[in-house]
Amino acid sequence: MRVTVQEAPFDYGQEAESFANGRHDMGAIVTFAGIVRDVAGGLDVMEIEHYPGMTEKALEKIAAEAVERWSLGDALIIHRYGRMGAGEKIMMVATAARHRKDAFEAAEYLMDYLKSRAPFWKKEHTAQDAGWVAARDEDEAALDRW
Amino acid sequence: MNVLYFAWVRERIGLPKEKIETNATTVNELIAELRGREERYEAAFADLSALRVAIDQELSDFDSPLEGAQEVAFFPPMTGG
User: Membrane spanning segments where (chain B) (predicted)?
Assistant: First the structure.
């Protein structure tokens, strides 16, 4: 299990490849990447603030819960903070399980929880102004299914 | 006790962190104390439904006790992923 919180970009292909490599007992690997999206057009920069210390703790707890619940062989979370442009990768998760259903479900669980339980906040900067992205009720409701 | 603010709470109050001497026994009491200080605190804490709190880096409730707490953080609902 690995949790990394960093400002620098990460190499999604390389991370996915090294996560998948050398596993002889796991039949399924699921990877997911979150990308900076220019929703309304005109996004200059997406700024992500976080709470150093609590962020790592929260992500480690979420990852450990997923490993336990789906008997994962491994789990990976990489999440960036700082300033990034549209199209850049913000974060990724990867899960390794014996069967695909567990790997998919665990990846969704990681995503649902880290969206509303890990202390990150997004701020969108355009040429005109800047505003904090509001949390969505659907994201909070998504936790109910687990 | 260290009190931390993030995102728009930090912007509204105008600082990321401060040391506070307080006798507050719960988060609610601490908030009442802060609101009484200055208009910018009043503005930040006006709508508690828009805020979350963490005590010693664990998500907590507004009626949670503060006994032994080293660090309390206030912030809006999280938007990771």
Answer: none
Nearest to A36 by CA among A112, A128, A131, A122: A122
Show which of residues 38-67 on chain A sit within 8 Å of chain B, judged by CB atoms: 49, 51, 53-54, 57
Residue A40's pLDDT is 78
Strands of A130-132's sheet in order across: A82-84, A43-50, A120-126, A130-132
Q: What is the pLDDT of residue A82?
A: 98
Q: In the prediction, which pLDDT does A41 show?
A: 83
What's the confidence (pLDDT) of residue A27? 95
ipTM of the complex: 0.95
Residues of chain A with C-beta less than 8 angstroms from the C-beta of B76: 121, 132, 135
Which domains are delineated in chain B? 2-75 (3.10.20.30)
Q: Give the gyration radius of chain B's Cα atoms.
A: 12
For residue B72, the model assigns a pLDDT of 98
Structural domain boundaries of chain A?
2-145
Q: Is the pLDDT of residue B33 over 90?
A: yes
CATH code 3.40.190.10 for A2-145: no
Q: Report the half-sphere exposure of A17 (CA within 13 A, side-chain side).
A: 5
A122 shares contact with chain B (CB less than 8 Å): yes
